[in-house]
Inverse folding.
């Protein structure tokens, strides 16, 4: 038993280590966007602006898959809306920003690999150049920008985005139409920009930092292995308690592990090897305590190859004991929404149900249900939460 536990833990350690990502992603990218603007203040009385005519070019560097830096250059063309006093002006902006990858922080990859959201904010300098009706040499000002950028990945190198940004100006001397700004020493919420555009990753890596899976450090791996050791030790202790409650059988026939060496319905054993009592209830108790659980990968309903032995064991046990009925209960880990985890857990249970029926178990002897999130384990032991268990009647 200890040898099997060591082999299992060693294999799990290799599996977790091989699935870690060591910043193997592109960090540089270019943003190209265009769209509409809404002017806040200031505009002189009688002037209204057409919303069309703004664009931006951004160069971004991600320090890791959560945080980055960005230089953004913006241009807006202002002109009157139809039927209002004519004017014309050009606006230029340069902003240095910090970027936060909300998708990585909030673990979007637990439910999608294509949708993401960035938050960006920073400050810089702007110039407003009025061309009509008054020509000026450029009104310099300080800007402060904050925006939210939903993304959708088209390929490993290209994603499309929609950006919603608000720009505040300080020390603006002129209004957008060229008139005097009576609040030039105050903060002006001058523009709201709405853009659509494309992000292009630069580099030879397969993925960009925006959609990279979070790196699992050796420390986290060690923590997970320690937690699994404790759970396995606890499970072994519980099994020993259950064994001690059962009658003692001969050394040749004692059941040390759950495999195909159980006693079938009606078979009984005595000290001299003759059959005199049944051991089926012992097996039912072990199964109801989760010993033959079925495990799954993250966000998957396909059964891990190593768990097929558990399904095979349940199949033989039920075929040999036709009065036995079983309830199949699926679970998911704590990542993702309650709704998606409820569906995922139900689908996992249904997959096991279908496999047992295909293996020859009458469907009337089986029921299945989704248990949602398994809250009995912490985040350091999530692989043990992605499972299906059996309740034997």
């Amino acid at each position: 038993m200890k040898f099997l536990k060591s082999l299992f833990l060693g294999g799990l350690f290799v599996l977790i280590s091989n699935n870690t990502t060591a910043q193997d992603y592109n960090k540089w990218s270019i943003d190209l966007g265009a769209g509409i603007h809404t002017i806040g203040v200031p505009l002189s009385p009688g002037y209204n602006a057409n919303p069309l005519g703004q664009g931006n070019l951004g160069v971004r560097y991600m320090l890791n898959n959560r945080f980055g830096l960005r230089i953004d250059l913006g241009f807006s063309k202002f002109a009157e809306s139809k039927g209002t006093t004519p004017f014309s002006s050009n606006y230029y902006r340069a902003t240095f920003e910090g970027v936060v990858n909300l998708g990585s922080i909030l673990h979007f990859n637990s439910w999608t690999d294509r949708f993401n959201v960035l938050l960006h904010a920073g400050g810089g300098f702007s110039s407003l150049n009025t061309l009509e009706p008054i020509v000026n040499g450029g009104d310099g000002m300080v800007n402060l920008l904050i925006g939210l950028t939903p993304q959708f990945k088209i390929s490993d190198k290209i994603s499309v985005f929609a950006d919603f940004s608000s720009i505040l100006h300080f020390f603006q001397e002129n209004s957008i139409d060229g008139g005097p700004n009576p609040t030039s020493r105050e903060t002006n919420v001058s523009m709201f920009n709405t853009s659509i555009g494309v992000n292009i990753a630069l580099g030879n890596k397969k993925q960009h930092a925006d959609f990279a899976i979070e790196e699992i450090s050796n420390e986290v791996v060690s923590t997970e292995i320690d937690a699994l050791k404790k759970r396995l030790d606890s499970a072994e202790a519980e099994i020993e308690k259950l064994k001690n409650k059962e009658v003692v059988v001969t050394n040749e026939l004692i059941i040390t592990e759950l495999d195909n060496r159980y006693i079938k319905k009606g078979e009984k054993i005595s000290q001299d090897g003759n059959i005199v009592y049944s051991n089926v209830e012992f097996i039912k108790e072990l199964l109801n305590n989760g010993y033959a659980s079925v495990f799954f990968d993250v966000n998957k309903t396909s059964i891990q190859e190593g768990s097929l032995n558990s399904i095979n064991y349940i199949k033989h046990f039920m075929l040999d004991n036709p009065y036995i009925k079983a309830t199949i209960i699926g679970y998911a880990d704590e990542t993702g929404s309650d709704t998606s985890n409820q569906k995922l857990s139900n689908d996992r249970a249904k997959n096991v149900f279908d496999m047992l029926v295909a293996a020859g178990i009458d469907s009337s002897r089986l029921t299945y249900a989704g248990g949602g999130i398994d809250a009995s384990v912490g985040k350091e032991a999530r692989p043990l939460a992605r499972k299906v268990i059996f309740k034997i009647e």
